């Protein structure tokens, strides 16, 4: 009996134990994987691992662009229990004042929007306050924000990024693939209070690669400052400055005016300011191009610096087009003097000696009409007509820097050839990618070293007394060389040349072993102070002196403080590449895939300049007085030449120069 | 009556039925003759007999169980081993969880410090902006030095091409 009871009890216990063991086995063996997954799904949180965008540094290691983590407050208007209360709380917590947030949220809710950004870039304290709000529908989004700590400095070089931190201009765009990081993913095991216990990376983050530019921020600042001051002083519309190292091609500074702050989002109003005038807006270089003409002459003809060139005593007609000097006719002068005094007729005659084929060849050798390869989007290659489209009048035009359009960077690249002994170096903007230094591209010899040295010696005369760049371009304590340029701007609307100029100066220093090449160009200057020697040479002076000081280049000349003073009463710079409006279609009207054209539209119409040619001085003055015009007579006898020419639109305050001779 | 069955056997009904009295058949005389000295006087009509014995255990000496000690120590040892085994199983897990908390908090701290460092780098870059330095210098009536006014006292930068003047 007892044994039966014991057996029964044992049997019950056995069954119960078996059931327990079976259930345990089912849970821990058969369904282990399933329940483990469910547990991990509840406990694991997928957390993004940020990969910040690469920082952009200047060559001295200063950060020009960097990304910072940022947070934004977003709401789902449809999920807010009480829009007015939520808006009021958010405005207080985020210090938004009376921003009308409630109305905006109501409108968004009525439109059925499920996403509304309340505020970008909130502080950590604000984020903590928002998290503490017991309101559904409010989220905090973490993202990255691009910052440019130097403000407008090098803005055209850097460019900018869009809302998703992808570059949309400048280096940010051209190097976007390298700069842009890819965030990773991390699996975080949490406890019941969502505190992390264990984490491991599911996807490795790929941080952006930092980039070091060749830009020197100190020089960049000086270039931008001087450019802005010159544009304001000369009432120009735009301008650009490029500073290069002629040995390596490093772009030490690249400034464009007007400028913008890349920290600000682009608007339709600052679209013009975002144009890079140094690389993207070509212009007719004018007399600066005479350097190319003389270089080609030294290389391909028997001409020497002392060879005499007949520059005439008055206007010359070549192939049906009139060519004349800006002010003075030089007669018979040496080829070196042609450059120093910037004689248009002299340069045209030299160009004719070079010939069409050689001229075209050397223009192309110097890199004109081609991309420089600088990693900046929107670069223009300028325009050089194909040789088949050259007319007999093209050679004299190109010789004086017309019928060809170039960018400031191309001019700088060409000057580097003269500065470094005849090697064409590619402009280099990226110094390092991460820790890897970008090697200098192999330069190509395009002219003989002796030709380059000879040209340097000739160009030194430009900054010496009697030269078109004296005294503005002369440097205290350093030898320098350069060339001024004053090209009339072509009005593409009226299809004629205006009396606005592109005043340029392209130079280098010191003479014996140039350390820097500086090219400055102002667009839209006018009057005597609008010529290259007056408008752009002071920029060259300031920027070059600063560059030589920064790079600790020793003096090679004694200081001469008097020469650096700008002579207010100096004679007008005879530097103008006077254009002939009857010269046929201007190169800037040429159709091309690159539709960047120089020149602002002309100002409002004013009085037309009367024709004084053939009149006596008495008659000229009387006619001018009757029309309320100001005439500057030069010489005596009969009026032979006038500037502006007859029929040109006279602008307010502009004076008419009339040259008389017997 | 001590027991109900004994009661029933005394009844005449059961007597006539021939229900034998248990243990009272032929042995009662022997039992009576050999009365147990410890037997107490029985109760009337009752077949239950009580015996009273006085047992003197004063001469008994309690002796220690030689195996009790080892058994005790064995039990202690086994329990300790069991506890240790349990600890070895549970403690690493607990330590891992605790270390995990600490590690994650350190990682969060590291992230926060890195973000803070980036913010400070940005602040430093803004403070070293050439425009700001220029503005501050001009406010202090400072001017840009000429190139021959700068003397490097400790060596010279690589970019310098001139000897350092004494």
For the record, the count of structural domains of chain A works out to: 4
Strand portion of chain B:
under 5%
Mean of the pLDDT scores of chain B? 79
Query: What's the overall average pLDDT of chain A, rounded?
Result: 87
Unreliable sequence segments of chain B: 19-26
What's the total count of β strands of chain A? 29
Characterize the largest beta sheet of chain B: strand count, sense, and whether it forms a barrel.
none
Describe, in plain words, how this protein is organized in 3D:
The complex is a heterodimer of chains A (662) and B (166). With 662 residues, chain A is of the alpha+beta class. Chain A folds into four domains: 45-62 and 150-209, Penicillin-binding protein 2a (Domain 2), CATH 3.90.1310.10; 65-145, Penicillin-binding protein 2a (Domain 2) (Alpha-Beta Complex), CATH 3.90.1310.10; 217-589, Beta-lactamase, CATH 3.40.710.10; 617-661, no CATH class. Chain A contains 19 helices and 29 strands. In chain A, a hairpin with a 4-residue loop joins β23 and β24. In chain A, α10 packs across α13. Chain B has helices at 4-10, 12-16, 28-33, 66-127, 130-139. Chain B is mainly α and 166 residues long. Chain B is 54% helix and 0% strand. Chain B starts with a helix and ends in a 27-residue tail after the last helix. Among the domains of chain B are: 1-54, no CATH class; 70-126. Chain B is rod-shaped. Residues 19-26 of chain B have low confidence and may be disordered. The interface between A and B is medium-sized, with 35 and 34 residues.
């Amino acid at each position: 009996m007892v044994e039966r009871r014991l057996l029964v009890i044992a049997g019950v216990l056995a069954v119960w134990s078996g059931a327990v063991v079976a259930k345990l086995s089912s849970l821990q063996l058969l369904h282990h994987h399933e329940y483990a997954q469910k547990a991990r799904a509840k406990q694991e949180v997928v957390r993004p691992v940020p990969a910040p965008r690469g920082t952009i540094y200047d060559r001295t290691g200063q950060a020009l662009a960097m990304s910072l983590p940022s947070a934004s407050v977003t709401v789902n208007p449809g999920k807010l229990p009480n829009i007015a209360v939520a808006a009021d709380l958010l405005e207080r917590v985020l210090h938004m004042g009376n921003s009308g947030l409630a109305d905006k949220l109501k409108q968004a809710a009525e439109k059925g929007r499920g996403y509304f950004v309340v505020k970008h870039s909130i502080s950590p304290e604000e984020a903590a306050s928002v998290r503490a709000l017991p309101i559904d529908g409010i989220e905090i989004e973490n993202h990255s924000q691009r910052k440019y700590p130097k403000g407008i400095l090098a803005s055209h070089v850097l460019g900018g990024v869009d809302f998703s931190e992808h570059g949309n201009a400048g280096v940010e765009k051209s190097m976007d693939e390298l700069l842009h990081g890819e965030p990773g993913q991390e699996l975080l095991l949490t406890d019941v209070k969502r505190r992390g216990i264990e984490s491991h990376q599911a996807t490795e983050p790929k941080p952006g690669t930092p980039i070091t530019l060749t830009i020197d921020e100190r020089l960049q600042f000086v270039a931008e400052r001087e450019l802005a001051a010159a544009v304001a002083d000369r009432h120009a519309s735009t301008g650009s400055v490029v500073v290069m190292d002629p040995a390596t091609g490093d772009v030490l500074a690249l400034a464009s005016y007007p400028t913008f702050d890349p920290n600000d989002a682009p608007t339709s109003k600052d679209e013009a300011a975002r144009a890079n005038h140094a690389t993207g807006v070509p212009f007719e270089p004018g007399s600066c191009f005479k350097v190319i003409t003389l270089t080609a002459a030294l290389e391909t003809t028997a001409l020497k610096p002392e060879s005499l060139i007949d520059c005439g005593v008055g206007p010359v007609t070549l192939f049906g087009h009139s060519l004349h000097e800006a002010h003075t006719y030089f007669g018979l002068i040496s080829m070196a003097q042609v450059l120093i005094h910037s004689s248009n007729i002299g340069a045209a005659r030299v160009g004719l000696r070079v010939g069409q084929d050689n001229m075209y060849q050397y223009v192309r050798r110097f890199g004109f009409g081609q991309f420089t390869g600088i990693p900046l989007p929107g670069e223009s290659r300028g325009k050089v007509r194909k040789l088949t489209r050259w007319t007999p009048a093209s050679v004299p035009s190109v010789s004086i820097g017309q019928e060809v359009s170039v960018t400031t960077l191309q001019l700088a690249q060409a000057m580097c050839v003269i500065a470094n002994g005849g090697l064409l170096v590619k402009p280099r903007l990226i110094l390092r990618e991460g820790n890897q230094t970008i090697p200098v591209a192999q330069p190509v010899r395009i002219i003989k070293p002796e030709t380059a040295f000879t040209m340097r010696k000739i160009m030194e005369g430009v900054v010496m007394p009697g030269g078109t760049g004296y005294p503005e371009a002369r440097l205290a304590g350093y030898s320098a060389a350069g060339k001024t340029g004053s090209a009339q701007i072509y009005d593409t609307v009226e299809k004629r040349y205006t009396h606005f100029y592109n005043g340029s100066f392209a130079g280098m220093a010191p003479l014996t072993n140039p350390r820097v090449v500086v090219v400055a160009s102002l667009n839209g200057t006018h009057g005597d102070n609008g010529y290259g020697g007056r408008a752009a040479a002071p920029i060259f002076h300031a920027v070059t002196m600063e560059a030589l000081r920064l790079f600790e280049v020793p003096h090679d000349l004694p200081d001469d403080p008097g020469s650096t003073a700008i002579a207010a009463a100096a004679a007008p710079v005879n530097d103008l590449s006077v254009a002939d409006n009857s010269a046929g279609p201007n190169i800037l009207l040429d159709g091309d895939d690159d539709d960047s054209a120089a020149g602002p539209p002309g100002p409002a119409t004013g009085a037309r300049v009367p024709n004084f040619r053939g009149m006596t001085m008495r008659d000229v003055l009387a006619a001018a007085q009757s029309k309320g015009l100001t005439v500057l007579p030069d010489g005596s006898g009969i009026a032979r030449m006038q500037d502006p020419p007859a029929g040109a639109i006279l602008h307010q305050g502009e004076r008419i120069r009339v040259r008389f001779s017997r | 009556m001590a027991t109900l069955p004994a009661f029933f056997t005394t009844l005449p009904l059961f007597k006539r039925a021939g229900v034998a009295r248990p243990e009272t058949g032929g042995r009662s005389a022997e039992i009576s003759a050999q009365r147990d000295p410890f037997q107490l006087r029985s109760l009337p009509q009752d077949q239950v007999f009580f015996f009273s014995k006085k047992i003197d255990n004063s001469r008994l000496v309690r002796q220690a169980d030689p195996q009790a000690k080892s058994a005790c120590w064995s039990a202690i040892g086994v329990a300790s081993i069991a506890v240790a085994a349990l600890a070895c199983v549970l403690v690493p897990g607990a330590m891992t969880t605790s270390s995990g908390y600490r590690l994650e908090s350190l990682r969060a701290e590291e992230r926060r410090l890195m973000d803070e460092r980036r913010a400070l780098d940005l602040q430093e870059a803004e403070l070293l902006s050439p425009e700001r330095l220029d503005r501050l210098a001009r406010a202090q009536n400072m001017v840009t030095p000429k190139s021959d006014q700068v003397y490097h006292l400790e060596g010279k930068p690589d970019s310098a091409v001139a000897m350092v003047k004494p």
